[in-house]
Amino acid sequence: MAHRTQLYLEDAQYEYLKELTRIQKKSMARIIRDWIEEKRQARNLKNYLDDPLFKICGLFHSGRPDMAEHFDDYLYGGKE
Predict the structure, then answer these.
(1) Average pLDDT along the chain
(2) Statement: residue 17 has pLDDT above 80
(3) Are 21 and 27 in contact, with CB atoms under 8 Å apart?
(4) Cα(77)–Cα(70) distance, rounded to whole angstroms?
(5) Contacts of 21 (CB under 8 A, 6+ apart)
(6) 69 with 63: CB under 8 angstroms?
(7) How far apart are CA 16 and CA 72, in angstroms?
(8) What is the pTM of this model?
């Protein structure tokens, strides 16, 4: 569902946005929505990267090149 909103821009901000619409061939609304989405995703990624469990990725090496493919076999048996 989309929500209509209104915002006020300073002259310089409006002119900058107007120039971007010409260069990118997008509407002002599309450019603003894209910026918001980029910020939202960057924030989600930052939260992910700050996760302590994510930070230990790559710290250990199994010595088995097919570990990802046969993880269950190695973990629960079936492959030696």
Answers:
(1) 87
(2) yes
(3) yes
(4) 10
(5) 27, 28, 31
(6) no
(7) 54
(8) 0.55
User: Alpha-carbon distance 22 to 28, whole Å?
Assistant: 10
Q: Encoding tokens for residue 66?
A: 């097919």
Residue in the structure block whose two tokens are 């990725």: 57
Please spell the DSSP secondary structure of 12-80, one letter per residue: HHHHHHHHHHHHHT--HHHHHHHHHHHHHHHHHHHHHHT-HHHHTTTS---S-TTTTTTHHHHHHSS--
Q: Distance between CA 68 and CA 55 in Å, rounded?
A: 18
Residue of higher predicted confidence among 64 and 15 = 15
